[in-house]
Amino acid sequence: MSDQFSAWQLILNGDPALFAIVRLSLAVSLSAVALAALIGMPLGALLGLTRFPGRSVLVVLLNALMGLPPVVVGLAVYLLLSRSGPLGAFGILFTPAAMVIAQTILIVPIIAAPTRQTVEDLWAEYRDELTAMDVSPVGRMTTLLWDARFSLFTALLAGFGRAAAEVGAVMIVGGNIDGFTRTMTTAVALETSKGNLPLAMGLGLVLVAIVLAINTAAWGTRVWSERRAG
User: Fold this and answer.
1) 99 in helix, strand or coil?
2) DSSP 52
3) Helices and strands (H and E) in the chain: how many
4) Which residues does 29 contact at the CB level (< 8 Å), separation at least 6?
5) Which of 17, 105, 185, 187 lies 20 to 30 Å from 123 when distance is taken between CA atoms?
6) pLDDT at 109 over 90
7) Which residues are within 8 A (CB) of 18 and not within 5 positions of it... i.e. 6 or more apart?
8) Exposure string (b/e) for 186-215, b if CB count within 10 Å is 16 or more?
9) What is the pTM of this model?
10) With b meaning 16 or more CB within 10 Å and e meaning fewer, what string describes 80-100?
């Protein structure tokens, strides 16, 4: 009980160490979501609008990648960024940039797969109108992505939720360095093992609050878009 009280005290008193970890976690996760959106949405839309040999294989692969094990992604990024790796010259291993790269790889399929399905469904509905208007391929993609913006916002929230709760990949490529690459999830694991339960519980409470807020926003967006469509 005293640990729970201390955890709330850390939050309510604005503990600098706790909120520094929260700020870094949010910065890394939001950056990863932004990059994943720039990659995943056009990729998903392209797969939804085009037909070519091997497309079905790519769609199946994209859906399968939604369940990528974070530790495998972390290992792959570690090997790429290590001194002996092809990108080792950039020297970004054990930095927030490496964590952003790992999380981006994890999130891209989570955004691209639903984007592909949504755009494909909309294309089936609006194909005749857009073809009759002689809309260019880029114009079709832009139009359908805009029409699907509420559904895609939900996909972005799902990607952010995955990034915020991820521990394996960021632990490997970030190194969990105090004050530099320590996120909420890695700090919870470390502080629990050290017996510093108030800080671990405080971070856990903040993380749960963020996840609840994400799910509430996703639900609210879905309900609002359905009412708007109706």
Assistant:
1) helix
2) -
3) 10, 0
4) 103, 160, 163, 164
5) 105
6) yes
7) 10, 11, 199, 202, 203, 206
8) bbbebbeeeeebbbbbbbbbbbeebeeebe
9) 0.88
10) bbeeeeeeeeeebbbbbbbbb
Query: At a CB cut-off of 8 Å and minimum separation 6, what does 148 contact?
Result: 115, 118, 119, 122
DSSP helix/strand/coil, 89: helix
**Amino acid at position 126, single letter:** Y
Q: Which residue has the higher pLDDT, 225 or 19?
A: 19
Tokens representing 226 are: 């359905």
> CA 122 to CA 58: how far, in whole Å?
20
Grouping H, G, I as helix, E, B as strand and the rest as coil, residue 213 is helix
**For residue 213, what pLDDT band results from cuts at 50, 70 and 90?**
confident
Q: What's the CATH code of the domain at 153?
A: 1.10.3720.10
Torsion of CA 103, 106, 109, 112, to 10 degrees: -10
Dig out the tokens for 135 from the structure: 């809309």
Q: How many domains is the chain built from?
A: 1
153 neighbors 93 (Cβ within 8 angstroms): no
